[in-house]
């Protein structure tokens, strides 16, 4: 509490960062000490918020160390994280500062664990990745579902996404980075598996689902989300002795399913070739650009979960507005407020939203307009 700030938002002049800053401006409690940070003071000043402005470059380790030492919670929207995020998370682990990001990059999460988990556990820093649409609805949606099922029995949960929305330039840039670094991601994952302790006497399985028909077509969803859910299950005994999670993207018709799969495959294949990746970067939206307020107002998401175990079955849903930006700004903002001001489990190191904040964050998100329901 002797630090000048409760929360610092790094990267607040970017598209998602500006939305998060605007959300925090209306959500922080009276007396909260918070600030905006980034490398361009003029851009931050143009946001028009009456809060302190701090300057630091994502590659300036000394400036980032000073930034981390001045706040209790540091949230960052500066990606791709595997390119720009390493020095900041290192500074937070060293300073004992709680860290939040919006990464959807498995490689970055695994590298953070390998490099910084042990130090953060010693300094008391909570390092919490994926605090936006990647992967809050999934991580907390599964936690919500598991809580409705019997304890100490094998549990199976399947997640299904339906959504409408448009990406920003930053999101597309991150997607290109992830798709173009599959070898590096696999190497980081293998190194983590070799050193990370496994839960004793428990079995955890989480990965993208297979193609299936459930009143519509469900496709594999190879994102960071199943990995995050699996890590929550490893950290929380409530998920039972044998836990299985599969995640899918839902479409109504087989032609739509085939078209979606073909488009995703073509994008991934192009991203692996440097000339094609450069062409896509030039043709797609630039970082800092994104959907208009009118486009975001028409966007939505629904994550539906089917949970089974102990002879019982439950269907739950997490839903909200524009997934990539408006809802993500709320998720990141409320995560920062939760870490700064709420009473939470005494855990440190690399954590997940479910293991670090759990029901406390769910309650905050419900008050912020994101619904967590049980369907009849």
Describe the structure.
- The chain is of the alpha/beta class and 376 residues long.
- The protein folds into 2 domains: 5-133 and 326-370, NAD(P)-binding Rossmann-like Domain (Rossmann fold), CATH 3.40.50.720; 136-322, 2-Layer Sandwich (Dihydrodipicolinate Reductase, domain 2).
- It contains 16 helices and 15 strands.
- The protein has helices at 15-27, 41-45, 61-69, 81-84, 86-95, 106-123, 136-146, 169-179, 182-195, 225-235, 254-271, 274-283, 293-297, 326-341, 353-356, 358-367; strands at 5-10, 34-38, 53-55, 71-76, 98-100, 126-128, 155-164, 203-208, 212-213, 217-220, 242-251, 300-309, 312-320, 349-351, 371-375.
- The strands form 2 sheets. Strands 7, 8, 9, 10, 11, 12, 13 and 15 form an 8-stranded mixed β-sheet that branches.
- A hairpin with a 2-residue loop joins strand 12 (300-309) and strand 13.
- Helix 14 crosses helix 16 (358-367).
- The termini are far apart.
